[in-house]
Automatic annotation (TrEMBL):
Gene3D superfamilies: Neurotransmitter-gated ion-channel ligand-binding domain (2.70.170.10), Neurotransmitter-gated ion-channel transmembrane domain (1.20.58.390). It is found in: Cell membrane; Membrane. The chain crosses the membrane at residues 195-217, 229-246, 258-281. It comes from Strongylus vulgaris. It comes from the Eukaryota. Residues 1-16 form the signal peptide. GO terms for cellular component: plasma membrane. This is Neurotransmitter-gated ion-channel ligand-binding domain-containing protein. The keyword Signal applies. The lineage of its organism: Eukaryota, Metazoa, Ecdysozoa, Nematoda, Chromadorea. Pfam families: Neur_chan_LBD, Neur_chan_memb. One of its GO terms (molecular function) is extracellular ligand-gated monoatomic ion channel activity.
Length: 367
């Protein structure tokens, strides 16, 4: 994802004007007279504008005029002081920077200067900062990065709660506009996400919720109320967790990896509820079969009490119970095997589920 800076808390602008001249030790008498007269006029201090106006008198200097007819080259440096926040929802990030612009203006040539004794040397996330001239194209102002090895530097180590700043890449881009070509200075900030926050806020609660849903396999097939409450609460907790994660992510139309992982996790919990429904259905059928078997047993006992031992009665009994057994063949054998798989006892289904569910979930996470 690429974020474009739209909020800059404050950007102090420092313009350094390089004056092309030789250093002379002595000050001109005219400048000394100007300084003394300015001090008499203002007892507190000498105004800079008065000195500059006197120095530039007669030179025809105009600060609103481009120094060269063929354009001026402006060297730019960025000092990144701090990056305060990155908002993934609004695609904004805030940073405090110093912008240094340096260019050579021949109209400011002045020979009488004291020597200067000071040293005035100045899954990864990518954010872009674009800096360009507002009024002048590259025929009038050529924007260039300074010749220093690192034109964009950080004043202090940048520490963010969610990301680590690992790389700063300054580039020059020529952008076409209807009024001509503009020089754009691009700064690409590469961040590396810190996964510990997402693991603690998203992955760990989700894992615990899924593991809790598997406890129902060990409660027994007849603990239906407890297992139902456990499964439903786990599913509701997963839905709430999914909504909480979505609130901290940008709204996009495509499916993200976290969406697939969360939906599959919810599917595992939903499948555990389906397994509970199958087990409950089989437990209910077993109870009905036991109840029906007891009723049939009573009827059989009553029929045995009234059983007729004559050959005709014996033949009637054999026709009723023995003759249908002779009609079974190979197809009936296959159906009986399938029926045996379908008629697994509830305890066996819970035992198999306690191994199948964790194995499938582990395979899903690995893949």
């Amino acid at each position: 994802m690429k974020l474009y800076s739209s909020l800059l808390t404050w950007i102090p602008l420092v313009s350094c004007i390089v004056i092309d001249s030789d250093y002379n030790v002595a000050m001109d008498d005219e400048v000394t007279t100007l300084a003394s007269s300015a001090k008499r006029k203002d007892r507190n201090c000498t105004r800079d504008t008065a000195i500059i106006d006197k120095l530039l008198n007669g030179t025809g200097y105009n600060k609103f005029r481009i120094p060269k007819d063929d354009g001026v080259r402006v060297s730019v440096e960025f000092w990144i002081q701090a990056i305060t926040s990155i908002n993934e929802i609004t695609n904004d990030f805030e940073m405090d920077i110093y912008i240094n612009e340096m260019w050579l203006d021949p109209a400011l040539n002045f020979a009488n200067l004291n020597p200067c004794k000071q040293n005035l040397s100045l899954s990864h996330q990518e954010c872009f900062l674009i800096y360009e001239s507002f009024n002048y194209n590259n025929q009038e102002v050529q924007m260039r990065w300074s010749d220093s090895p690192e034109p964009v530097v950080t004043m202090t180590r940048i520490v963010l709660p969610d990301f680590d700043l690992i790389k700063i890449s300054p580039t020059l881009v020529n952008a076409p506009y209807p009024a001509g070509w503009w020089d754009e200075l691009h700064v690409r900030l590469t961040f590396e996400r810190r996964y510990i926050w997402y693991f603690m806020q998203a992955y760990l609660p989700t894992y615990l919720t899924i593991f809790i849903s598997w406890i129902s396999f060990s409660l027994g097939p007849r603990s239906l109320p407890a297992r139902t409450m456990l499964g439903v609460n786990a599913l509701l907790a997963m839905i709430f967790q999914f909504g909480n994660i979505m609130r901290n992510l940008p709204r996009v139309s495509y499916i993200k990896a976290i969406d697939v992982w969360m939906l599959m996790s919810m599917t595992f919990i939903f499948c555990s509820l389906l397994e509970l429904a199958i087990v409950g259905y089989k437990v209910k059928n077993e109870d009905l079969l036991k109840k029906r078997g007891s009723i049939i047993q009573k009827k059989v006992n009553n029929q045995l009490d009234n059983f007729d031992a004559s050959p005709a009665g014996l033949c009637r009994y054999e026709r009723r119970f023995i003759l249908p057994m002779e009609k079974r063949g190979f197809i009936h054998f296959i159906l009986s095997r399938l029926r045996a798989i379908r008629n697994l006892p509830p305890e066996k289904i819970d035992h198999l589920s306690s191994f199948v569910f964790p194995a499938c979930f582990a395979l899903f996470n690995v893949s």
